[in-house]
Structure formats: structure tokens, C-alpha cells
Specification:
The chain is mainly β. Helices cover about 5% and strands about 40% of the residues.
């Protein structure tokens, strides 16, 4: 979820953003992000990147990050209130200088509390996820964005159900594949996404593929967040 930048004179474009979401049997997700930033000439160097997380059930020790293969200095918890959660990834010696381009790669081993009872079918569970976006005061241009859901192990290709793509997305439904581990893979792609806009993606699948005690009831963390905003 969107977090506040660390300096008011940041100015950059986000040429590409990819995120893979693995839905795990224990009701958690694992995440892998790649952000390709270009720091505008004359702007503040990109020395930190705020990465939103969908719930507060995570451990910083289970995260790692690099910039073009160079490990970052540190990752700090950066809870923002109003239902939003996230971390600050400090780039240190890998800081992206004005006029330069770099890809920030972030891996999150586990974020818990991400599988909920499906609102349309009692035999199904569902997950919704919103990729990190950035404040319009700091980011410019459009973003080549790819969002991939790796559904739980064992889900058969005919069983899951995609949720409708966000408003304004160029495709109504994701492309469907099997990933290298044989898991059902939903992929949403937009070559000209808005980097300062929140997009929501979701999928439903038979609840038998997730541990029963891991399925949450009531509104999801994202629904609670948007309720807090309004």
C-alpha cells in the first residue's frame, strides 16, 4: 500500500513494476517485487523505497533486497497507521543517482492473514492483493506492470476463478498458465499502468487447498484499510 516518501524533492519514473504473489497453504502469501526506477535529473537520489505490505503479519528477518544485484544496507519496519503496513528499503551504496536507472528487487518470505472466506461460494476461499504504488507528487509517466498470482499447490486448472480486472485495465481477465512448479498461474499485464494508482487483483479457489484454520472471516485487511480511509 502507498507510503509517504522520505523527502519532498524526490522525482522519478517507474518504467516497470512486476510482482509475483504465491498463495501458501497456511493462508499467507510470499512476494517478489522488481521496480525499475529512473531518478529525474536534479532530483533527490533514490536512497530509500517504501514497499507496502497487505497485512502487519510479517517479519523483517524474512525479507531481502538488492539493486541490480547489489544487496541493500537495511530494511526497516515503517508502519503507517490507518490500516496500512509497509517497510522502508534503504539502498545505501546502491542508491540510484539523478539521471540513473536501477532495478530494486525485494523478496518477502511471508505475509500472513491473506486468505478469506469467499463471499460468493462457501466452498471457496479467496485472496485479494494490491501492488505497491507511489504518490503522484513524486512519480511521473506510466509503468509497464505485471501482476502474477501463483495459486495454492494442488489447485486444478478448471477449479479457480479470477476476479474481474481493475477499472481501466486493458484486459478483463488474466492470462492463465501453469508455472514451473505446476501451479495455476494468473497473469495481469498493462503496458501503460498508472504508478500512482491503486489496483486490486483477486482470485478464488476451493478452500480445501488451504488449511482450515488459516481461512480468515470478516472483511479482508484491504477492505478494512479502505474503510479506514473513508
Amino acid at each position: 500500500l502507498p507510503l509517504t516518501a522520505h523527502a519532498q524533492d524526490y522525482s522519478f519514473s517507474l518504467g516497470q513494476e512486476t510482482v509475483d504473489v504465491w498463495i501458501n497453504e497456511d493462508g499467507s502469501v510470499s512476494l517478489e517485487y522488481a521496480f525499475t526506477f529512473t531518478c529525474d535529473p536534479g532530483a533527490h537520489p533514490i536512497d530509500a523505497v517504501d514497499v507496502g505490505l497487505p497485512t502487519g503479519d510479517y517479519n523483517i528477518s524474512g525479507m531481502r533486497a538488492d539493486v541490480d544485484g547489489q544487496p541493500v544496507d537495511r530494511i526497516d519496519g515503517d508502519y503507517q497507521g490507518d490500516g496500512a503496513h509497509g517497510v522502508a528499503v534503504w539502498l545505501g551504496g546502491a542508491t540510484i543517482q539523478p539521471g540513473q536507472t536501477g532495478t530494486v528487487h525485494v523478496v518477502v518470505d511471508r505475509v500472513g492473514g491473506m486468505v478469506y472466506e469467499d463471499s460468493d461460494d462457501a466452498e471457496y476461499a479467496s485472496t485479494e492483493f494490491s501492488p505497491t504504488w507511489f504518490g503522484s507528487a513524486f512519480v511521473n509517466g506510466t509503468t509497464d506492470m505485471t501482476v502474477s498470482f501463483h495459486l495454492p499447490v494442488g489447485v486444478q486448472p478448471e477449479e479457480p476463478r479470477w476476479h474481474r480486472s481493475p477499472s481501466g485495465w486493458p484486459q478483463e481477465q488474466p492470462d492463465t498458465y501453469l508455472d514451473e512448479d505446476g501451479r495455476v498461474l494468473y497473469v495481469w499485464y498493462n503496458p501503460a499502468a498508472q504508478p500512482d494508482r491503486q489496483y486490486m487483483f483477486g482470485a478464488s479457489f476451493p478452500r480445501q487447498y488451504v488449511a482450515e484454520g488459516a481461512i480468515q472471516t470478516g472483511p479482508s485487511a484491504l477492505e478494512q484499510f479502505f474503510t479506514a480511509l473513508t
